[in-house]
Design a protein that fits this description.
The protein is of the alpha/beta class and about 400 residues long. Helices cover about 25% and strands about 25% of the residues. It is built from twelve helices and 17 strands. The chain binds (4S)-2,6-dioxohexahydropyrimidine-4-carboxylic acid and zinc ion.
Length: about 400
Amino acid sequence: MSLLLKNCRLCIKDKVFVKNILIRKGKIAKITGKEPKADKVIDARNNFVLPGLIDAHVHFREPGLTHKEDFLTGSMAAAKGGVTTILDMPNTLPPTITIAALEEKRKLAAKSIVNYGFHFGATQDNLEDIRKAKNIAAVKLYMDYTTGDLKVSDFEVIKDILKTSKLTVIHAEDGSVKNVVDILTKNKIKNRVHFAHVSSQKELNYAKQNKIKNQVTVEVTPHHLFMNQNDIQTLGAFAEMKPRLKTEHDQKALWLGIKNETVDIIASDHAPHLKEEKEQANYPFGIPGVETTLPLLLDAFNKNIITLPQITKLCCENPAKIFRIKNKGFLKEGCDADLVIVDLYKRQAVRNDDLLTKCKWSPYDGKILKGWAVMTIVNGNVVYDNEELLDLKAKEVQYGR
Ligand code: DOR
Ligand code: ZN
């Protein structure tokens, strides 16, 4: 099966070209000005085509919490949002902290319509499992609060985890950034760490001072970029997540971090909870986001706040590089045909009823955004086409180490 995507507007080295993309056997075979023959032709109508987004931080809740989300609903939401690969977090029930739990999750994820990978959870005493875990994106270390009880607070254990794992994702909150950097420096550990959802100027500055030779990388979320603590007043629990929304000053600092490249990636931290759960007095923390990341960013592009090459770097290229995901993140011949066609002029409101996430709400409900994904292609298959979804199964990603 071959597919020709005609009239694709592409950014190549910051210049814009209109090209045709030939897809063969799930891969980008040619990016060309010519019109090679193909079994099927799709006209992108001069819309921009970007590499599919790689969302390195989602909670798809399977197994154990599937009333909130599962790999099918989560991946449908992803496809609608132009996300073609997700990396799932380990705080499920049971948590992904043993080889058996990882293998079980692998089976469950087979229903996903976007490509997927897994972060493996660290605990006080699972170093052996960490060593044995195969084909994982990274080891996730929570030093603070989380949904579930994956908390490691003993610095000796943390040191051993950082020494063992080639790449550790740290739940950045409170003093974690400083504590981890101190442990790395004191013990001359050379393995990499990635700080998830950095939310304050203080943490960002600290990470920046220690950004030595790519050993330390920084992730921010759309909610910390597009909201601040004033939104908690209007939205209450529906704007509550960990780490919490910060001041306008912190929000500005994150945008500055994008400009000066202190921030390496944007990931949604898609953490759905049901409306009913959020309405309880002791509501859980977390908000959905996998489906709104790209429209929020395209809307910001339309307001001259961010450029398309920046979006591509932050959401596609850098996640592929940091997590060493093979053949993804770039529109290049030989790479997997994971791509998204975006209509930069499409104006549409985010509406709870339209969402595909099982939780069916978003803090952005009612917000009109300009710029939306109109078609998403995963491994050469169209899985999302103008509000229509196709249930075609995707694959687990592979990593080059
Ligand atoms: O707000 C959050 N929700 N922060 C986390 O670290 C976990 C997440 C969840 O799983 O709900
Ligand atoms: Zn998270």
